[in-house]
Input
Amino acid sequence: MSSYRLDEITRRAFEGPLLEEKEFDMLLMKRTRELVKEYGLRYDPKELVCTDDSLADDVFEAGLMLLLELGFYCQSTKRRIMLEEKEVKGALKALPESIKLGCGRDAVTMHMRRIEDPRPPVIHAGPTGTLCSEGEAYIKILRSYAQEQAIDSIGAGTLSTIDGLKIRKDTPQEFRAARKLAWWARQAADEAGRPGMHINDVAVVSPEAKLCALDPAHGLRPTDGIIVSQMAEMKTSLKHLSLVEHLQSYGIHIGNLMTPILGGYAGGPEGTAIVNVAEHIAGAVCYSASYHYCSLTNVKNLNGTDRPGLWAVSMVGQALARNSEIMSVYDCYCASGPGEEMLLLEAAAGGIVASVSGMNVMGCGSCGGKLVDRSTGLEARMLKEAAVAAAGLSRDEANEILNELLPRYEDKLDIFKAPKGKTFQELYDLTSAKPKKEWQDIYEKVSRELAELGLEL
Output
């Protein structure tokens, strides 16, 4: 993105229409519901991967219209950054069809995938915002991902403490955590024999703190990535735009993170799909993101692997795949925990939906991201392997498998019913960072069950 575009976006953040944030929320809620009716969008729980191309096109058009009408809200100035259709379409037209992640022999190419694309998706894997212990435990957890040859990129978990001190936003401890998270990720990749592997973020809250992770020698390199978040729904801040400025000068990949809340301001799955498309477009234009994390979350159960969530994800993926070059990555958030068959089934369902709908994948976030050290490389392997196995399937074939698969876990998606599993320390050998027989056996069992359903890993 040229400095001119970012300067223009900043100007509009100061000069755009003034509106209180709560009023923007109400406006978004009202207009989204109107668009769902205007376009006749209707969620079908039996067809999680929609087979109607015109419906995907309608979701894209509705998302574009929502962004153009409402703008991208700047929390710092309480003003709407208004965009014009011509400049938006010009920015989308200039997006690349592929990008290189990582360096040396560990580099991978991430492609803009299409519906029913036979090319295997790339996976960004890691604790995915899930709480982790600091230090050696964190390195081992990330190493468990980096050692999986199916995994292309590792990302950051969230620490609650650094050197035994609680991490709070905008404190010295947060800045120190950002630096150490990057260093520990490099150590994990080195120990796994993949030093050039793409590292996609350090999970700290403050945009300023993320800058501490940028260090070609010991931290994040220009071939790595940093996430610039949006606030739900369709919001940014001057701090986030300033982070974009510095990341561009450093030359690192920018990941646009959206956390659309299904059951929140956007409403049901139809409205959530519309808003999420708008957020993808906003991230492409205002953040100049290389890739976009679709981290959809159910307001009740903190996961995206239920029927409404998977339908919304599929609609977003197909809408973007048919109408843009925006590389969307499904961020698979699950209700259950490691050591449980249910987590592998949730991951498989997410991988199928995302792959057939033209997306790449990321994950897995387990237990809604709320429990410490409930992350392992094995569930990420399942997500990637299921997505690879689904690459090239027709949407009808995918729906057939999904309608057999979801009844095996969806009655336990309630946050209070979902099995929480075991910690990384209980499921992995801490010397080799490889899964113990107990967890590996469960993986093999679920793999056989998926093969019986027609999904050969």
Remarks:
- Residues 172-191 form the longest helix (20 residues).
